[in-house]
């Protein structure tokens, strides 16, 4: 696999003091990578630097091995889909799509067939003569994606392109984008603050926080093995408990786990709600004793809140059948399938 | 009564007051002055007043002078205002901030005062000429000349026009411009194919405003214009007040109105064309 886009130690600080620093990232050819993080963490700053709309203070950006930091956006082999207002309202869809191709002096007949083909790809055949205002928000974003696709960029950049759409449509667009990506083999950098979107769409996720990268990994690894406490907190639901590290063992209550990270002293132990097993009664068995505070049926599973006394309240996901055995106020014993530990500072 | 009929009635009732107002202060006076302009010296009706407009040497040169001053003023005002608006939209720095804060000041200075200010500054014995004399340059005649009228027109029209165009440019989202750069458009192409088309409607509105304002202007031409030829507004006043020829003055007024309606026609036509293209 060859590296299509390489960001090396990129930094950009605004006058306000905000910005990003020390961003390094390699994106493989044909990969869909997502920059994920809360609003204001610097995702757009990184993306705009790649697209050439922002001049970084330091660092380098290479596309197909060539440095592009000195190039203006119109000279970069990238194309960007913005959050909104991508299309030129005074031009028809055809003219919107053909604009870049005309600049590249493509013959008219070729433009015509290319536009027709890309409109089929984004499921809007026959929209040539319409104006952007005659399309819905989702359709407009499809056209924006189509316009970028026509230019066959080395890297396609998307800055929260679906965030203004409603949940159902967002879901559809996500699937369509994934299909387009498979079909075209395009390298994409996708920015979102929506972790569900990132988890379902990406080959790899870059989790960002306060202008730096917390972790780069495949969605499954981000979920199963969050490297930092921040990622553990940010991605999915997670319970946090106090624990201790003793030699090669992690101790949580009466439970013991391997101390894979070789931590020492007090640690923070993270456990996913689905990794918690509840058994009625407080026996002498290993685990943590608690009482059931609340039960919420959420479709095929239930969310159960358990008061563990000193360890606080944790939430566990339980199968529907299991919940039938449980009652509010009942004493239970909670055991964990697996935990992730973080040093306590 | 059906609901749609009720709504229709309501619409009608809401429109009537403005329609009446338009009728009383625009349509009726124009019709009256048109009728008046048709009255000849013998008391009958014909086009002799208009014939005079186009055959009298002084009148003809007034018309040509008016059109020339108007067109030149419009061109300069629009070019300067649009450049200013573009500069304010796309640049940053101290100078732009200063311009943004100060460019509207002329709007708040009463016309007569500003005109006298111009006379003091640019007149034969004004500050500028005295200063230039010190370094051995003689200032050409500006006041009591068409240059004076044009400069006054710039003073009166540029701030408002720039403001109008600025708000049009502010309405173009950055992403629309960045998208154009993104697909490979350079500065010039972004300007001529995106920025200008997206602001040309306002440009047209501004052009119409400036044209009508200048062609019908009185204060500046009266105070800083030459004795002959005259702008139509000044000439009208003279024909009406000094020569006491109401009918001839009415003919000049109606002719000025016709000149304005030509522009109005093009303006409305382009608006309608745009609307039908998009619906
Ligand atoms: N042009 C700018 N001037 C000053 N600060 C900015 C500018 N653009 C973004 N910022 C700040 O930089 C930080 C990162 O912004 P951004 O990259 O847009 O974050 P994100 O896209 O993740 O929401 C934010 O705190 C934001 O307020
Ligand atoms: Mg952003």
TrEMBL record, chain A:
GO molecular function ontology, one term from the record: ATP binding
Record-annotated ABC transporter domain positions: 5-235
N-terminal signal peptide: none
SMART domains associated with the record: AAA
The keyword Membrane belongs to this UniProt entry's keyword annotation: no
Keywords assigned by UniProt, alphabetized: ATP-binding, Nucleotide-binding, Transport
Reaction(s) catalysed by this chain's protein: a quaternary ammonium(out) + ATP + H2O = a quaternary ammonium(in) + ADP + phosphate + H(+)
Gene3D superfamilies reported in the protein's UniProt record: 2.40.50.100, Nucleic acid-binding proteins, P-loop containing nucleotide triphosphate hydrolases
Enzyme class: translocase
Assembly and binders: The complex is composed of two ATP-binding proteins (OpuCA), two transmembrane proteins (OpuCB and OpuCD) and a solute-binding protein (OpuCC).
Name under which the protein is recorded: Carnitine transport ATP-binding protein OpuCA
Organism, scientific name: Cohnella lupini
From TrEMBL, chain B:
Topology term for the membrane: Multi-pass membrane protein
Boundaries of every ABC transmembrane type-1 domain copy: 63-267
Compartment list: Cell membrane
Residues annotated as transmembrane: 63-90, 102-121, 151-172, 203-228, 249-268
Pfam families listed in its UniProt record: BPD_transp_1 (PF00528)
Keyword tags: Cell membrane, Membrane, Transmembrane, Transmembrane helix, Transport
Highest taxon in the source lineage: Bacteria
Protein family membership: Belongs to the binding-protein-dependent transport system permease family. CysTW subfamily.
Record PANTHER family: INNER MEMBRANE ABC TRANSPORTER PERMEASE PROTEIN YDCU-RELATED, INNER MEMBRANE ABC TRANSPORTER PERMEASE PROTEIN YDCU-RELATED-RELATED
Protein name: ABC-type spermidine/putrescine transport system permease subunit I
Organism: Cohnella lupini
């Amino acid at each position: 696999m060859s590296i299509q886009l390489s960001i090396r130690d990129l930094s950009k600080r605004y006058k306000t003091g905000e910005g990003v620093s020390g961003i390094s990232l390699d994106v493989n050819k044909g990969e869909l990578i997502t920059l994920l993080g809360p609003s204001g963490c610097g995702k757009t700053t990184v993306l705009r630097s790649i697209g050439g709309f922002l001049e970084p203070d330091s660092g380098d950006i290479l596309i197909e091995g060539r440095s592009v930091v000195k190039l203006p956006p119109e000279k970069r082999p990238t194309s960007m889909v913005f959050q909104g207002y991508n299309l030129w309202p005074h031009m028809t869809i055809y003219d919107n799509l053909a604009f870049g191709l005309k600049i590249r002096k493509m013959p008219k007949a070729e433009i015509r067939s290319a536009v027709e083909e890309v409109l089929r790809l984004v499921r809007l055949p026959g929209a040539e003569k319409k104006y952007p205002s005659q399309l819905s928000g989702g359709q407009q974003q499809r056209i924006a994606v189509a316009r970028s696709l026509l230019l066959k960029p080395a890297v396609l950049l998307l800055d929260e392109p679906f965030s203004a759409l409603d949940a159902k449509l967002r879901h559809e667009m996500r699937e369509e984008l994934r299909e387009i990506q498979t079909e075209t083999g395009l390298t994409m950098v996708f920015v979102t603050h929506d972790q569900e979107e990132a988890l379902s769409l990406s080959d790899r996720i870059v989790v960002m926080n306060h202008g730096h990268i917390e972790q780069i990994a495949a969605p499954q690894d981000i979920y199963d093995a969050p490297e930092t406490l921040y990622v553990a907190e940010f991605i999915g639901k997670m319970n946090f408990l106090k624990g201790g590290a003793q030699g090669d063992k992690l101790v949580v209550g009466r439970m013991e786990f391997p101390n894979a990270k070789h931590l020492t002293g007090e640690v923070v132990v993270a456990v996913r709600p689905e990794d918690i097993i509840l058994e009625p009664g407080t026996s002498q068995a290993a685990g943590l004793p608690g009482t059931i505070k609340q039960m919420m049926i959420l479709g095929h599973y239930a969310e159960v809140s358990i008061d563990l006394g000193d360890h606080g309240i944790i939430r566990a996901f339980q199968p529907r059948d299991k919940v039938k055995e449980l009652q509010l106020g009942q004493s239970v014993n909670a055991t964990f399938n697996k935990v992730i530990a973080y040093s306590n500072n | 009564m059906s609901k749609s009929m009720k709504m229709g009635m309501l619409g009608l009732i809401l429109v009537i007051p403005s329609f009446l107002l338009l009728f009383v202060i625009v349509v009726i006076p124009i019709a009256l002055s048109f009728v008046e302009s048709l009255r000849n010296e013998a008391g009958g009706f014909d086009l002799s007043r208009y014939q005079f407009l186009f055959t009298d040497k002084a009148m003809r040169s007034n018309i040509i002078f008016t059109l020339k001053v108007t067109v030149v003023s419009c061109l300069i005002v629009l070019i300067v205002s649009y450049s200013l608006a573009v500069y304010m939209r796309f640049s940053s720095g101290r100078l732009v901030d200063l311009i943004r804060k100060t460019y509207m000041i002329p709007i708040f200075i009463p016309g007569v005062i500003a005109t006298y200010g111009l006379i003091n500054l640019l007149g034969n014995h004004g500050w500028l000429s005295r200063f230039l004399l010190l370094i051995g340059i003689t200032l050409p005649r500006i006041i009591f000349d068409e240059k004076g009228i044009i400069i006054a027109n710039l003073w009166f029209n540029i701030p408002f026009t720039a403001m109008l165009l600025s708000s049009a440019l502010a309405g173009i989202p950055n992403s629309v411009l960045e998208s154009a750069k993104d697909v490979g458009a350079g500065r010039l192409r972004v300007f001529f194919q995106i920025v200008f088309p997206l602001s040309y409607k306002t440009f047209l509105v501004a052009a119409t405003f400036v044209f009508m304002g200048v062609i019908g202007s009185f204060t500046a031409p009266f105070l800083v214009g030459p004795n002959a030829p005259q702008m139509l507004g000044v000439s009208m006043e003279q024909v009406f007040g000094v020569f006491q020829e109401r009918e001839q003055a009415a003919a000049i007024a109606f002719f000025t109105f016709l000149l304005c309606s030509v522009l109005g026609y093009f303006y409305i036509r382009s608006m309608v064309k745009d609307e039908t293209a998009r619906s």
